Amino acid sequence: MQFFRKQRISRLNGDRQADMYPHSLQFYGQPPTENISLAEFETFAVDRLRLLKTIENIGVSYVKTSEQYSKKLEAELRKLLFPYRVDVDEKELGKEYEKRRKDHISHFILRLAYCQTEDLRRWFIQQEMDLFRYRFHEIPEEHFQNFLNTNNLIYNSINEEERRIVKLSIIHSNANISAVKLEEMEIYKVPFQDVLDLVRSRKVYLKGGYTYIPHKEIVTVVLNDFRTRLSKALAVTARSLPVVHSDERLQPLLNHLSHAYVGQDYSIQKNIGKISLEQIDNLSLKSFPLCMRNLHKALRENHHLRHGGRMQYGLFLKGIGLTLEQALQFWRAEFVKGKVDADKFDKTYAYSIRHSFGKEGKRTDYTPFSCMKIILSNAPSQGDHHGCPFRHSDPELLKQKLQSYKIPGNGINQVDDCNFSLNHPNQYFAESQSLLNGKDVKREAPAKISGGSQETPANVKMAESTSSAEMDDLELLFQDAP
Amino acid sequence: MHCGSTPKTIDCKSQHAPSQRPVSSCLVCYRERTTNPTIRHPSRFRYSRALGLVSMSDVYDPASLPDLLPLYYRRLFPFSQYFRWLNYGGVTKNYFQNREFSFTLKDDIYVRYQCFSNQSELEKEMQKMCPYKIDIGAVYSHRPNQHNAVKSGSFQAQEKELVFDIDMTDYDDVRSCCSSADICHKCWTLMKIAVRVLDRALKEDFGFEHRLWVYSGRRGVHCWVCDEAARKLSQSARSAVAEYLSLIRGGSETIKKVQLSTPVHPFITESLSLIMSYFEDYALIDQDILGRPESVENVLALLPEDILLETCSDFQKYKTSVKRWESLKKRVKQGSQKNSALLDSEIVLQYCYPRLDVNVSKGVNHLLKSPFSVHPKTGRISVPIDTRQLDQFDPFAVPTISMLCQELDKAVQSGEEDESGKDKEGEPEPKRRVRDYKRTSLGKYVKVFELFVEQMEKSWKGQLLKQSDMQGDF
């Protein structure tokens, strides 16, 4: 009898899952209602965070619709056990539902962690949108209408007759669609209120209050919809946060999660005053990431750095523990060797150094730049030394430089499978220091640096990690979180 | 001395001699009045009239507004159709009651958040206050006059017609006949073009059916889009619509204000073809843009280097705007830059395409001058424009309030002569008013308005039926 009952229950479960997750891609409209264990809560959240961070990184390296991007993302999805394929075999269905469930739950957990500030929200929405876009593009056309229906997106496909009438006008409205391409796609009729961005810029054919959107463009519409919904949902979530935070089991993890993104910004210096100025030259060779090493070298050689360089390097130095007095001394000593006399230094450059320590003006204590910031903002031009060498330099030049720094030859190759990724120059410094000062002897010294194309960012990876090291890495990330 | 009968809604300041044989009715309160010259009327013009010195002038004088407005609001303003419009068939509860009106009163006193419970209250208040100017605002979440009583944040503008404001001053850089507040028949064509182009787009591209175009009274036109979908649009949707309709970019600093690229969007193609039917007469002949030297310079400033010289030499050969335009079009085709073949279209658009103020259209709570409001500076009534006879519309033929009052006066007098003995006292007001505006130049404009309202009523009837079906009342 019991046996019988069990079978029935498992069948019911399967059906329920089929109802809940009819599709691998969802809008996350409804929050999950089941009970889960704390362990699962944590694993799901951490895995999704990993996924989103990967998305952020590969989004910087590759064009978002390119093959390399898709391949990398698929690999990550597969590794972390998230759904990545739309059409799944019968026998795989059970596992697939597990993945979809994980996808669903982890999304909602991260909402809790990322709804609190504007920055967090923006970041979260951006990565989720990129993930959505990728999955959306993977939906084969025959499944598409089904997807629209299951998500209540009322975009009606137009019939042959109407196609004939509007074809030419669509081609004239849209620079990206040729007649040939249009023949192959469905055309959807969407009320203009739902596609305001396209209407505003007049990039779409509009007739009788409806826009005619070829399949290729429908992703913009759906994405906008997704973004709007998510944005609203995050606002609502933020309002109910106090209740969530009152649960002591959840609060620490949620805090860690949101700080992991920020990657701890090294604004709170733990090692203030522990570095002496004499050590800097030595440290620059041993523990500085390449960008800072370059800047230091340029400073020593030219006795000068331009603004971008001063900002990037100056804040880095603050992050490793230099005090304001030390900083002033350091820069002054160097600049005076050049064309700047002491007076001028005190009048001009000193002010901006004090400013960056939060002692002037609006007293913002500026945080050292993360890798993302260095790569994406303020690209260096002629005469600059700042930026990211893995992004902003010529590959050949980079290779040469690395060779001259005595990195083992085979290290200058693509290393893909490491688990540790670098987000912040100060992180590099901290890791390097802890390594050199003897923590895990098994690990190799600084870097197997991925050289290669200009597209590859500074994925400076630590050497082979074991699976236990996987969790270690993550803990390192959380290490200094307040 | 007053006639002693119970005063009606306003105090009649004219004087009556009850015992004397009525020669005419007081225009304001309809009561019998004497033209006995010894009895003075308080205002200047009534005095003169009482003396029989001067007939009611049709030349508008802003100072006479206080006297004319009461008459206008008593006997001419089409309250019935106005209410039928703004009530929208009563489909949504409290739609009329939650509508904001704002009045500009005498001495520039401006009052906002006016609202009314029904047509009767609207009439009474307007006749009492005699606003110099009336603006219509949004339908709010609560009665506008309660806006302070409501918890802050809950008092929200919810719906309003989608509106557009085209002002002739925005075209000053491309018209030579007039500037700033002046208009003439030559530049009025720009308004005709604006109405044609925008009306087509609102109807065909956006599917809006109920569009009311109104002459602003001085130098522009307004459009009221009254479809339900339009009234429910959000601010960002309104601004998207306005941006879609905008082709002129840049202010006084920008020389070339229109940039086109291939493919050319069907909206632009349609708009251009409408404009071209006016272009030769308007721009080449009336404005003579390639004849007058300053104007020629301005056009040449829009040309790229590679065709500039040849064009200049063409202009030595040809002296009329028409011929020069032909030669310019040929040159444009020879241009080497990307999209240079679109240059002549860009010039046409820069000189003729409608210039609308996005900010007016954007705000859900934006207040816009009401149709049938008087323009205090010109005295002209903001009358609806019959788009079926757009080319015949003459802004200078639009009646002023003084003209209307004079017409009314004449009509009443002649009416009384014809129907001597017939007592008009007993007639109910609305009926009298219907006869009244029909006797004046306002009549034909009210007709346009009436048709507009009737068209909308057809759509509400359907809705009301649906509603009552659902509620089960039969």
TrEMBL record, chain A:
GO molecular function: 4 iron, 4 sulfur cluster binding; DNA binding; metal ion binding
Cofactor: [4Fe-4S] cluster
Domain DNA primase large subunit C-terminal, residue spans: 282-429
GO cellular component: alpha DNA polymerase:primase complex
Spans annotated as Disordered: 442-473
Keyword terms: 4Fe-4S, DNA replication, DNA-binding, Iron, Iron-sulfur, Metal-binding, Primosome
Note describing how the cofactor binds: Binds 1 [4Fe-4S] cluster.
Top-level taxon: Eukaryota
Binding site for [4Fe-4S] cluster: C291, C371, C388
Cross-referenced CDD domains: PriL_PriS_Eukaryotic
GO biological process: DNA replication initiation; DNA replication, synthesis of primer
First and last residue of the signal peptide: none
Family membership noted in the UniProt record: Belongs to the eukaryotic-type primase large subunit family.
Functional summary from the UniProt entry: Regulatory subunit of the DNA primase complex and component of the DNA polymerase alpha complex (also known as the alpha DNA polymerase-primase complex) which play an essential role in the initiation of DNA synthesis. The primase subunit of the polymerase alpha complex initiates DNA synthesis by oligomerising short RNA primers on both leading and lagging strands.
Assembly behavior: Heterodimer of a catalytic subunit PRIM1 and a regulatory subunit PRIM2, also known as the DNA primase complex. Interacts via (C-terminus) with PRIM1. Component of the alpha DNA polymerase complex (also known as the alpha DNA polymerase-primase complex) consisting of four subunits: the catalytic subunit POLA1, the regulatory subunit POLA2, and the primase complex subunits PRIM1 and PRIM2 respectively. Within the complex, POLA1 directly interacts with PRIM2.
Protein name listed in UniProt: DNA primase large subunit
Originating species: Erpetoichthys calabaricus (Rope fish)
